[in-house]
């Protein structure tokens, strides 16, 4: 089993470069900590169930990375944040993009 967490790139515009650099470094560090914490939890659950797990933390755009890494896998299990309405329309849905474009079966969990 592969436990994948995709950390989205931090994008900030229209601010002094010195401030942006500090903010981006801080945000990236925070996101990587969250990724480590989440993947550690899933890895522990898998190991407790006797399922070997490999963690991958990757920076990029989630749907694109998931689709790329999942090639040749048996199934993709992806979480859904449950966004609806305008938020979903504006931000898109990673789960929806994966379902529509995956070459392997996809299970969405909420």
From TrEMBL:
Domain UspA residues, every copy: 2-109
UniProt xrefs under Pfam families: Usp (PF00582)
Family membership: Belongs to the universal stress protein A family.
Protein name as catalogued: UspA domain protein
Organism: Methanothrix harundinacea (strain 6Ac)
